[in-house]
Amino acid sequence: MPDPARRRVLKHLAASGMAVAGFSSPIRHALATGASPRLANGIHRLEGEVRFNGKPRRVGDLLSAPLEVVTGERALAAFSLGRNAYLVRGNSRISIADTDGKGADVWVEAGRLLSVFEKGEARVMTPTAVAGIRGTGIYVETEAERSYVCLCYGTAELAAAHNAGLRETVSTTHHESPRYISTQAILPAPVINHTDAELILLESLVGRVPPFALAGAHY
Length: 219
Prior knowledge:
The protein has 219 residues and is of the alpha+beta class. The chain has helices spanning 4-16, 25-33, 196-205, 211-214; strands at residues 42-47, 50-52, 67-71, 76-81, 84-88, 93-98, 103-110, 112-116, 121-125, 129-142, 147-160, 163-172, 179-181, 186-188. Strands 1, 2, 3, 4, 5, 6, 7, 8, 9, 10, 11, 12, 13 and 14 form a 14-stranded mixed sheet that branches. A hairpin with a 3-residue loop joins strand 9 and strand 10. The longest helix is centred in the N-terminal third of the chain and has 13 residues, at 4-16. The termini are far apart.
């Protein structure tokens, strides 16, 4: 039988119609010197109550997909899996399924997630939205009847869950096109609740620099 994380991902794909401060000192040192930290599948920061596949873990512990991350109120978790990195905020439930080492399917059942992905197929899904992406940074929040999606840089196909005819292709370099996505509409939104500093730190966990940092732009 498939594991629970993969079941959540596949169930949502079928429904959608589409198959900073406080990080560890090695990361801060790498950013200061311009060197890339050692790539690893593991936890880089924890605050508050966080469970990985139902169990509490520590900074430095190794992780592997499939993975379910559940955070309590005011909690936070930052970790890397392969060449992708994730920052999960409080009151969140996230499932991550590896797709044969060539990408990732991420199901944001509830809460808020900032993530960066290497080039390759990846999908980030919520109860009302699906984003098909390739090598991008993306921030997602869930609400009762809509989701907030900011493609921080890169290209993505955004679609409404349960309404496959409602979709939009978005290309950005620096937070130009945030969206609110419900089952009825895709609407413009402001930039909220995530920063360039967080994106820079996440990319540093997997040895990369976001394109806006190379261009000298910050938000």
